[in-house]
């Protein structure tokens, strides 16, 4: 069987997988050692040729797969967690696995940091600092505050563990209303409106699907109290950023710690840059380049073994569900 | 025996201890119930009269005790952790106990937040945001990074527990080189210089004493690398703020998360307000007014029981040592 590696020439070298690296990993797993042939490409002009003759594709860049002839292709492993751009061009019958879980450790630390920043009023104090205003407030501990986790996948579950250990009361939100994560309570996404008024911090790790797009519209944002802070590390289009910005401008939210944006890089003239209470990181806070490739490779090698034994793959995306 | 409560009329009411509150606490402790008479005052013109006839003083405001006649006074419980202003006017032979430990829970959470903020480059991203610059960096997890805790008292020990649980490698610094806290290593204060070049985050909870004043002078700041961040929640005068500001201005430190200042409130014309990499809170991040009085009262009631039984008191300050 043939595995083709498609790298993104514009990505940092730390995110390129070489034939040698992959072969090294196969070599230490005897059942995989001599079962696969390998190729690698980073020249988009050559991509069609490689896709025409591979059985398995590892891809470090987004491809509109239905634009290619892929007669032998059975499975694609991608390096991202979000896959909405892949699914817009997905050939029927091909298995898709993503990098869910690889962002967990760093993502959970970022979410814990953001939740604590709200507890200590940092978004407000940053505004005071900019205006040279000394205005202390003597609030309580983070312990006991309520964090709503929208999505309890790889990142959400890791965050739930850290937040719970820190004494936060964590409410998970999933499609089914069930999850295995370390949460005090898990609710169905359609029960969301009832809990929003109680929440201290809303954290979204949600993927973008037809069901999640614009889930946090103006109406739902209005159900939050002015003490609530918002943390968005999943897909941006789950939220109405304009409505969120309007509410921040009038002090109807405690702030927003954002890593993702409707357009990236965020245009220099976007009013969000200087919206009060916004703390921005440029879509990098969940990615650890020193560990990212190795994390994806772990998923892939595990999946190759499962694939060889005809077992269900890890991180398999359901195209109908969208994640 | 007579206990006098001296409140600070200018402090928030949540920090005033009333005779009724104290009596309620005594009532639930049978050995203390009818042993003490109580008084309360918040008028500075009356203070001398009350001090002249009390055996025990609870004080919510700073007093130059050696300016008063205190013939019966044997013990003072104060509501702050730092006591350098008391010790400058201390009558010989009087026992002093402080509020050490009451700031632990909230202080530890603040320190954890600040350490995580450095890991995620927040001080740098805030500068980029102010200039509308999109400049991602893909660093690693906080886990494994080194935090140096200057002082491992009530706040430091609580912080050590949270940081260690989060995977930080914590080095404690104490006078003796020993501590009971949850640290990977504890060193003597005079071994400080050797570890400074390795440190990711320096956290100071140190009190102000002749030994700690200006401990972090220009020379010691220069031993830190440009990736190091500084968190100061103890006394400000342990650090040379001017030297720190100069280093921040030229990018020789990753940033500073500060709750305390050489002068408070910080004057509006102080250049620190707009120094790059500085995140400021106005001396409020360790104090939880909803729990503070109760925390101090716990120490005091425990100490009253010890006092009655002739046992050593908790949180007893050594005037020679300064904390």
Give a written overview of the molecule:
Chain A has 323 residues and is of the alpha/beta class. Chain A has 2 domains: 2-102 and 288-308, NAD(P)-binding Rossmann-like Domain (Rossmann fold, 3-Layer(aba) Sandwich); 104-280, 3-Layer(aba) Sandwich (Rossmann fold). Helix content of chain A is 29%, strand content 16%. The first copy, chain A, has helices at 19-27, 47-52, 84-87, 104-119, 122-130, 154-165, 192-195, 218-221, 241-249, 289-308; strands at residues 2-6, 37-41, 56-59, 75-78, 95-97, 146-150, 169-174, 185-188, 201-204, 229-232, 255-258, 278-280. A 7-stranded parallel beta sheet of chain A has the order 8-7-6-9-10-11-12, with helices on one face. In chain A, helix 4 (104-119) crosses helix 6. Chain A is elongated. The model of chain A has no long low-confidence stretch (mean pLDDT 96).
Short description:
The structure is a homodimer of 323-residue chains. Chain A is built from ten helices and twelve strands.
Contiguous runs where pLDDT drops below 50 for at least 5 residues of chain A: none
Total of helices of chain A: 10
Query: Can you tell me the CATH architecture of the largest domain in chain A?
Result: 3-Layer(aba) Sandwich
Strand order of the largest sheet of chain A: 8-7-6-9-10-11-12
Q: Decide which structural class fits the backbone of chain A.
A: alpha/beta
How many β-strands of chain A, per DSSP? 12
The CATH C-level name of the largest domain in chain A is Alpha Beta
Characterize the biggest β-sheet of chain A. 7 strands, parallel
Q: In what range is the share of β-strand residues of chain A?
A: 15-25%
Helix content of chain A: 25-40%
Number of domains of chain A: 2
Superfamily (CATH H level) name of the largest domain in chain A: NAD(P)-binding Rossmann-like Domain
Q: Biggest interface, and residues per chain?
A: A-B, 52 and 52 residues
Our measurement of the CA-to-CA distance between the termini of chain A, rounded to an integer number of angstroms, reads: 27 Å
Mean pLDDT of chain A: 96
Oligomer status: homodimer
Radius of gyration of chain A, CA atoms, in whole angstroms: 21 Å
Q: State the shape of chain A.
A: elongated
């Amino acid at each position: 069987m043939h595995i083709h590696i498609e790298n993104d020439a514009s990505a940092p070298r730390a995110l390129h997988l070489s034939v040698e690296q992959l072969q090294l990993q196969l070599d230490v797993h005897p059942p995989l050692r001599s079962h696969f042939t390998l190729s690698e490409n980073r020249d988009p002009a050559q991509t069609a040729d490689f896709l025409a003759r591979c059985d398995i594709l590892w891809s470090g860049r987004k491809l509109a797969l239905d634009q290619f002839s892929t007669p032998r292709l059975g499975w694609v492993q991608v390096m991202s967690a979000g896959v909405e751009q892949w699914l817009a061009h997905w050939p029927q019958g091909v298995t898709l696995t993503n990098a869910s879980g690889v962002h967990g450790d760093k993502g959970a630390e970022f979410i814990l940091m953001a939740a604590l920043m709200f507890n200590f009023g940092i978004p407000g104090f940053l505004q005071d600092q900019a205006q040279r205003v000394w205005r202390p407030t003597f609030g309580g501990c983070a312990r006991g505050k309520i964090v709503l986790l929208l999505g309890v996948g790889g990142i959400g579950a890791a965050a739930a563990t850290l937040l719970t250990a820190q004494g936060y009361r964590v409410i998970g939100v999933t499609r089914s209303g069930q999850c295995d994560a370390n949460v005090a309570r898990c609710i169905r996404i359609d029960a969301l409106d009832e809990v929003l008024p109680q929440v201290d911090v809303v954290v979204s790790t949600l993927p973008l699907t037809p069901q999640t797009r614009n889930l946090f519209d103006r109406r739902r944002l209005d159900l939050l109290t002015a003490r609530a802070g918002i943390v968005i590390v999943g897909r941006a289009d789950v939220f109405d950023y304009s409505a969120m910005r309007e509410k921040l401008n009038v002090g109807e939210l405690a702030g927003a710690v954002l890593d993702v944006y409707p357009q990236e890089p965020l245009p220099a003239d976007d009013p969000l840059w200087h919206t009060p209470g916004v703390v921005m990181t440029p879509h990098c806070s969940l990615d650890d380049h020193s560990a990212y490739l190795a994390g994806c490779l772990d998923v892939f090698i595990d999946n190759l073994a499962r694939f060889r034994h005809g077992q269900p793959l890890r991180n398999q995306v359901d195209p109908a569900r969208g994640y």
